[in-house]
Structures are given as C-alpha cells and as structure tokens.
Write a structure and sequence with these properties.
One of its GO terms (molecular function) is hydrolase activity. InterPro entries: AB_hydrolase_1, AB_hydrolase_fold, Sec-Metab_Biosynth_Hydrolase. It comes from Rugamonas rivuli. The chain is an alpha/beta fold. It has one domain: Alpha/Beta hydrolase fold, catalytic domain (Rossmann fold, 3-Layer(aba) Sandwich). Helix 3 links the parallel strand 3 and strand 4. Helix 2 packs across helix 3. The longest helix has 18 residues. The protein is globular. The mean pLDDT is 95.
C-alpha cells in the first residue's frame, strides 16, 4: 500500500465544525494525500459515529482517522470499521470501552482549568463567548478566535454521555498530539490517555485549538502515521 493511497478522514470536536481543519487539509492535499472532512452534528455519539462511518464508507481504500477533542471519542468507536487502519488523536479524548467524555471529565485534578461551559439549554451545551478565546483558542488569531466563539455549534448532552462500545485503539496503531497549553483538556489528562492507549506521542506548544494554530505540526504527525502504516503493509 502506498501511503498516498490512504484516505485521511478528519473529525472535529464539540462546539466547532469541520472548517477548523482547513489549513491542515490544505497542507495534506498539497503533499498529495486524499482528505475528507466530517461535518458531525454533535448531537449524540451514535449520530456522530454514523456520520463519520458514511465518510469512511465513501473512501475507496484504507483510512487513517484523525480526531480532535470530542472527535477522539468518535474515532475510538468509528475506528472499529475494518477500513480504518490507524488513529491520530489531536488534544483528544481517548475513551476505554464503556467510558464517555462525561466519565473522563468527571473528576478533574485539583487546580485543573475549568472550561467555561454554560448550563445546558434544551439538552445542548455552549461555551461562554466572552471566555471562549482564552480557554479554547488562546493562540489563534483574535479575529478568528472571535468568529469561532460566535459560530459555536451546540454540543449535545447525548454526545457528552455517549459511551464507547469497543475501543478501536486496542487493535489499531495510534498516535497522539498533546497540546501543552490546553485549557480545555488538561495536558496531564492528555498524557494519561496517550500512555494508556500506547500511542506514539508528540507534544506541541499550543492551545486546545492546536489544529488551527499549529496546522503544520498537526499535519506532520498525520503524515508520519500515514507513512508508518504504509511500511507495515
């Protein structure tokens, strides 16, 4: 299998949509990779896995799944698809079987930053717009961070509480990018998850929106994973 025969499927997290992957997408495509971006509704984990699997099924060859934040839970479940050959977690949740994002964030470490999540309305969550940039996108261009805050996608409580039925990282090669300045998922929690899934791990100076602020570092890890998968064939 040629690494460039792989299709790379990018999965966004909560509060945002797939447009944040634009610069990563452009770098990967410039380097010859086929890229697809999932637009998940972030209503329930089951819905988001179904949306992601539609994109996986549309690919002609093997797939490398990439997930940011809550997207890590989505790829952990959707990655059980036989077409998926590897997983890349970008400042992402990596649940064990039976875990959800809700269970992973239930008992934060003392002193850990508290994301400015507002009380749910009609079963959906949003971040406080005034605090969005500082917590989610501190190193993103201020105008872009402001737009991200204003264009938030409501995150469903059913996505937060959706439990993984089988953790694909147990049988698929995994990679993890730790965002060292993350104020949404503490870096220590990211390191714990990366170690637990036995991922090849790199650390990058960046906010939770590291895929927006450091697209070259994120794309480099994705390409490294793609090339390693090629060598295993």
């Amino acid at each position: 299998m040629n690494a460039l025969a792989l299709s790379i499927v990018l999965v966004h997290g909560g509060f945002v949509d797939g447009s944040g992957w634009e610069d990563v997408n452009n770098i990967l495509k410039q380097d010859g990779y086929k890229v697809s971006i999932v637009q998940n509704p972030t209503t329930t984990l089951a819905d988001d896995v179904a949306f992601t699997k539609r994109v996986i099924n549309a690919q002609q060859g093997p797939v490398l799944l990439v997930g940011h934040s809550y997207g890590g839970a989505v790829i952990t479940e959707a990655g059980n698809d036989p077409k998926v050959k590897g997983l890349v977690y970008v400042a992402a949740f990596a649940p064990e079987k039976g875990e959800s994002v809700e269970t992973l964030i239930k008992n934060p470490a003392p002193g850990a930053p508290v994301p400015p999540i507002l009380p749910p309305v009609d079963g959906f969550l949003l971040l406080d717009q005034a605090k969005f940039a500082a917590s989610f996108a501190a190193d993103v261009d201020p105008k872009k961070a402001s737009f991200m805050a204003n264009s938030q996608v409501p995150w469903g409580l059913g996505a937060l509480s959706g439990a993984v039925s089988e953790a694909s990282w147990k049988v698929k090669p995994s990679y993890y990018l730790v965002a060292k300045d993350d104020k949404m998922i503490p870096p220590a929690a990211q390191r714990f998850m990366a170690q637990r899934i036995k991922a090849e791990t790199i650390e990058v100076t960046g906010s939770h929106a590291v895929y927006v602020s450091q697209p070259r570092a994120v794309a480099a890890l994705i390409e490294k994973a793609a090339k390693a998968l090629d060598e295993k064939q």
